[in-house]
Amino acid sequence: MFYRQAGDFKTTYRGDIQTFPLRQDRIAYYLMLAFAFLVVPFVINDYWASAVLIPFLILAIASLGLNILTGYCGLVSLGTGGFMAVGAYACYKLMTAFPDLNMMIVVLLAGFITAAVGLLFGIPSLRIKGFYLAVATLAAQFFLVWLFNKVPWFYNYSASGQINAPERTMLGFEVTGANAEPAVSYLFCLTILTVLALIARNLTRGRIGRSWMAIRDMDIAAEIIGVNPLKTKLSAFAVSSFYIGVAGALFFSVYLGAVEVGEVFGINQSFLILFMIIIGGLGSIFGSFAGAAFMVLMPVLLKNIMVGGLGWPTDIAAHIEFMVVGGLIVIFLIVEPHGLAQLWRVAKEKLLLWPFPH
Amino acid sequence: MGARAAAQSIDQGAELLRVDDISLSFGGVKALTDVSFDVLRGEVRAIIGPNGAGKSSMLNVINGFYHPQQGEVWFAGSQRRNPKPHNIAHQGIARTFQNIALFNGMSTLDNIMTGRFTHMKQNMLMQAFWRGPAEREEVQNREKVEEIIDFLEIQAIRKTPVGRLPYGLQKRVELGRALAAEPILLLLDEPMAGMNVEEKEDMSRFILDVKDEFGTTITLIEHDMGVVMDISDRVVVLDYGRKIGDGTPDEVRNDQAVIDAYLGVAHD
Amino acid sequence: MKKLKATLLAIAVGGAGVLMSAPATADLVFPSLSYRTGPYAVNGIPYADGYADYMTLVNERDGGVGGVKARILECETGYNTQKGVECYESTKGEGALVYHPLSTGITYQLIPKATADGIPIHSMGYGRTSAANGTVFSHIFNYPANYWNGASHAVNHILSENDGDIKGKKIALVYHNSAYGKEPIRTLEELSAKHGYDLTLIPVDHPGQEQKSQWLQIRRERPDYVVMWGWGVMNQVAIQEAANIRFPMENFIGVWWSGSENDVIPAGAKANGYKALTFHQVGTEYAVFEDLKKYVVDAGKAAGNGDQVGTVLYNRGLYAGFLTVEAVKKAQEIHGTADITSEMMRDGMEALEITSDIMASAGMSAFGPEFNVSCDNHGGPGLGAVQQWDANAGTWKLISEFEPSDMDVISALITEDSDAFAGENNIEARKCG
Amino acid sequence: MSPQFLYTIEVMLNGLMAGVMYSLVALGFVLIFKASGIFNYAQGVMALFAAMTLVGIQNGQVPFAHLVNAVFGTNIHGFGWNLPALFAIILTLGVMILFAILVERLILKHLVNQEPIILFMATIGLAFFMEGFGDLMWGSDIKVLDVGIPSGGSLWLEDKTIGWAAEGSNYYGMYIDKLDIVATLVALLLVITLTLFSQYTKTGRALRAVADDHQAALSVGISLRRIWVIVWAISGFVALVAGIMWGAKSGVQFSLSLIALKALPVLILGGFTSIPGAIIGGLIIGVGEKLFEFTIGPLIGGATENWFAYVLALLFLVFRPQGLFGEKIIERV
Asked: Do A290 and C6 touch (CB under 8 A)?
């Protein structure tokens, strides 16, 4: 009744292809953007910024990246953790080699380096498909982690092999290191995420996005209409790795501050990001956000309820947390196999018709 | 000069495509043996023959899925050397499939927009910015696609995911996707298989309209003899991978070899 | 855009969570970043139980420390660094006095954060070794012993068994291929130059369930001694494999994280004689255990299942609790207030003195070495001992006194590494004394 | 014979044995994938759960003791019995069958005809659930698994081979772990049983029919749901065997679930659908990674086994995308 399509006619194709064709959606979008940029930084406390929102923003970038590869181009990858590690180590090397470099540039360069590595590991995708490819990307995962652990140059020959993010600034504000204001770090990540999300949206709605989806849906037919499979798959690998590399760089420098590669960027990280996009919705920008939010917030929420609220022992709470998250994944799949994004779409369609269902 | 431009400059009625002595086999099984024929610009050329005669294999050779062990393919006056299917698309050859090969995850509109792939040039950077050239290109191509949607009378299903469409409409969307490429040569693999009479009539009308309105050269495989004889200018007949007849529908209909090998055998 | 819808949702949902957490009261707050789940739960449980039980004991028996009750804030990390950050951020606001991060990875992350927040960290027998340099790491403590001490203890033990001459002996280091496992390498290399033994490095990748290649290599090269820096399932498999190739167990020495009951029990009788380093006593022959039984276990207030009392890692948690409480007492004494802050706690830790009298009065006579902490030395003297497994009795036994390590070698390494850290992070070394 | 040569043989033999251990895990994957096209991520957790259940039953642990104690303030721990191994194994099998039925009822039934990725995801959810459930049920402490499998190096073999090397070359004889020999025999027995089962029983034939062609099998009246229960139960049994073998080595603890990672390269190498593939893939991976670690490993810093298996499998795939014995992927136009 309040959410209406009526009277919102499109007179140009330009109007029809915009991201939010409905005016109400558009207004809501701008309001939220304003809220995130102008209100949230001034009201959140350290806990919310450092422990919940920053990881959410960064993992949303990573899941956007993986969604481009897996959701849009149909190539299942389990090497996300390894590629995030590439971003993190590239970031570390750049930070220590060029201490005066603007942090934004460092992060973007780390992304490009990861994109190059991603291209390399994307080559076998031309021949290997489906789960075989998924398992094959594990080769990248394990090899990269091993490499960063083994070659001392990557961690500047430090005694233990850990890498630590030194303090770096952006426009005079510290964004990394212990003295960075969480709100500033939050804004830094939010800015990057917003820009990258817009770019992801732009790439996926145009020629390149359609060529990715064509390869995903039916590679033979895609070829027949002129899509070069190798170039298309590699471009998906490169773009996806760029996002994941940026996420890795931020994960290390802004969020954690110190990283041990095997622990932080291990296979668990790869699976976590994959869970995010599947739960959120494959081939959906919104799904990437929803999935990241679900996987970051759900455990925190459950923990707060069970330990903070009900006062249960932490181990029982942790076990039940596993069971609930696992159970929810299954239930979601049964209710809506196409993820939270589809659930959201259906809800909106219903709302459009409400209260007159026919 | 690219192959597409070369093909474009060929006169109506002149030779657009020629296959010479094509032989193709899969691990000892011969699919095609010494097949030769030509396709003239602007005509509807049909390939007929019983099941397993090698018709689809012939189309696959033309658009580069299979590379024949022997023989030459000439397109727009130059010989092709084992190109990839996506190169062929850029030369101006489009096709549809016997079993529908649509992009099931996308809407009708997106499927047909994807068909415009060879006509869109903006690079990734421009796409990422969107505003400006990329958006302009998108809108221009959208206009073309809307023309095709109007032409095929599928306005109502524009935003429907193709997976949900009935069979007949899916066939039509697939034709739309092929047309969106503005092909010079259009290959249709059994465009009317599985359709009822009404749908077949619609499809025949579309094929003839394509030929007349866009001047597209069409090569099609079809089982329904009536349709083939009605809409095609010339017919090639294959049997067991060999060419056994070639000519106008009337010539073929009266060719004794064709009658023996084919018309007397299958009626589907 | 859509993200923000999610964010909004997050805030709404999370708001509910925050409302539910308990309000802060005037307590001594000790967060316990435990891991009772995940691949290392086996080791995390006894440690967390020991730490919590000691605090419960202090509350029940003594009415708290200086009249103020201790409160344990347990937060489950699952040995996962991300959850570690979440735990730190969610507990630091409650007046946390000191963190035991219980994982080298989490320690590394918390070092800059906690320093900036003015909360001390006590990484007891793990974490960043060079944090022993108090002039650079003002808020980080790793007394009574660190990994480099441990490496030296192992070599010293080997020296003592060979009358001080190990020239030409072969020592193999089997290590978890991670930051933790790589810690002793530098020290062992320096010591090898000094004592003339051959060092072979044998990494084992996480998790370490398959170690055939490594032990075949050891069997072939027949090192005189094997030193192990293992963790989790790697320990159990290594000890099993060592027994299988009939490597003499008494020449097999693990670090203190490779020396719990969990590590030796799966190998059964074959593990008899296996040695491990330690910096505290084993067993339950101490007065404190009677109190624990009376005030905690029998009162039904034990943490976890209450079935871990007296195991090696339980004792370590207990010892950590003891050292923490003593530091609180010191801080209360220095600042003349019972209700201390984290900065006061830091002062207390820096001035900590553990004497035999203090240990005796806590019912833990000679449970650990005597030592002092100072402004420039946050690592203590680095005393350690060797314990040995008796498979028949099913108990560990100390076979040496708490002995010093080769501080000449180690001090130089600590200075070098902490200076590098200070340089990378623009830290001005404090002046002490 | 030079010791170097003997060492190489020894490494290869041990690699073969390690490979068998990988195959044991991979078998469970293959069975489920073959019959239902599901890539069962939970296979590793199933092995852990089975082993935990076995030990729990054998030692008379009370399930959910910790939870019950925490909620009701009781202090119960064990029934105080000690069951014979065989009896406990049979009871555990019963639990795994129950588990299979529940999986079918609660999950698979509702996900019929979904895409493989969805089913894969469901098994991930299942794995999460079981991780929490298993720990809650049996506790997360380390458990000693003792069903009487011998372990330790074979002295007999050492004595026999010690003389093979040249005099004075410091050779100690060849080393093979008895546990590995048992594992090999068990694996052999398992494969033979599975083969006989699928060849000569009605259910087995139905299984094969389903694997070949779902639709056709359905049309001749084979109940897919029953097949799923059976195949998950068999996989549960295989998981139990794998859990016993690996658990005997390292004790039963959470890390046992990570053995799944060792099985994945075996799967790609052998093909997802082939039982002989799982065995031979395991052997190749076992020998390959051990030889690589033995020869190249020392040059590049060691600990190469984790990634080498995957890189080997990857290289292999580039030349044969469907794995060693996998069904050929036919692309039709």
From this structure: yes
Mean pLDDT of B93-116: 92
Within an 8 Å CB–CB cutoff, is residue A345 touching chain B? no
E-strand stretches of C184-309: 198-204, 225-229, 252-254, 275-278
Q: How many domains does chain D have?
A: 1
Residue ranges of domains in chain B, CATH in brackets = 1-92+183-268 (3.40.50.300), 102-182 (no CATH)
> Which residue in the block uniquely carries the two structure tokens 């709605």?
A205
Q: What pLDDT is recorded for position C5?
A: 47
Q: Are C246 and C223 in contact (CB under 8 A)?
A: no
Q: Do chains C and D touch (3 or more CB pairs under 8 A)?
A: yes
User: What's the pLDDT tens digit per position in B3-19?
Assistant: 888 888 888 889 999 99
Residue of D nearest to A132 (CA): D268
Q: Which of C231, C263, C278 is the last residue of a domain?
A: C278
Residue of C nearest to D12 (CA): C213
* Strands of C252-254's sheet in order across: C198-204, C170-176, C225-229, C252-254, C275-278, C385-390, C395-398
For residue range D116-145, what is the model confidence (pLDDT) as tens digits?
878 888 998 999 899 999 999 998 888 888
Of A178, A305, A315, the CB nearest to C37: A315
d(CA A17, CA A340): 23
Which residues in chain A (139-158) have CB-CB distances under 8 A to chain C?
146, 149, 156, 158
State the nearest Cα–Cα gap between B140 and chain D, in angstroms.
32
**C97 contact D CB<8A:** no
Pairing relationship of beta strands A163-164 and A258-259 according to DSSP bridges: antiparallel
Of C78, C109, C182, which has the smallest distance from its Cβ to A161's Cβ?
A: C182
Pick from A224, A241, A338 the residue to mutate for testing the B interface (most B CBs within 10 Å).
A224
Average pLDDT over residues B125-149: 91
Instruction: Answer whether D317 sits within 8 Å of A127, measured CB to CB.
Output: yes
Same domain, C291 and C420: yes
Count how many domains chain C has: 2
A298 at the D interface (CB within 8 A)?
A: no
Assess whether C209 and C255 both reside in one domain. Answer: yes
Q: Give mean pLDDT, residues A35-58.
A: 90
Domain, as residue range, for D69: 38-259
Same domain, C264 and C317: no
Residues C33 and C106 sit within 8 Å (Cβ to Cβ): yes
| Residues β-bridged to residue A170 | A173
Q: Let me know whether C98 and C199 are in one domain.
A: no
Q: Are residues C272 and C297 in the same domain?
A: no
The domain locations on chain A are 21-266
Strands (DSSP E) contained in chain B are: 15-26, 29-40, 44-48, 70-75, 78-79, 93-95, 185-189, 217-221, 234-239, 242-247
Nearest to A13 among B102, B103, B143 (CB): B143
DSSP state of B29: E
- Verify D-A touch: 3 or more CB pairs within 8 A: yes
Complex ipTM value: 0.90
- Interchain pair B63, A224: CB under 8 A: yes
- At residue C210, does pLDDT exceed 90? no
Tens-place pLDDT, residues D190-227? 999 988 888 888 888 888 888 777 777 777 777 888 88
For chain D, the 3-state helix, strand and coil shares in percent, each to the nearest 5, are 70, 0, 25
Does some domain include residue C307?
A: yes
Candidates A155, A167, A260, A279: best to mutate against C (most CBs of C within 10 A) is A260
Residue C333: count other Cβ atoms within 10 Å of its Cβ.
12
Task: Specify the pTM.
Answer: 0.92
Residues of chain B neighbouring D333 (CB-CB closer than 8 A): 56, 60, 65, 97
Q: What is the mean pLDDT of residues C94-114?
A: 90
Predicted local confidence at residue D149, as pLDDT: 84
Q: Can you name the CATH fold of A21-266?
A: ABC transporter involved in vitamin B12 uptake, BtuC (1.10.3470)
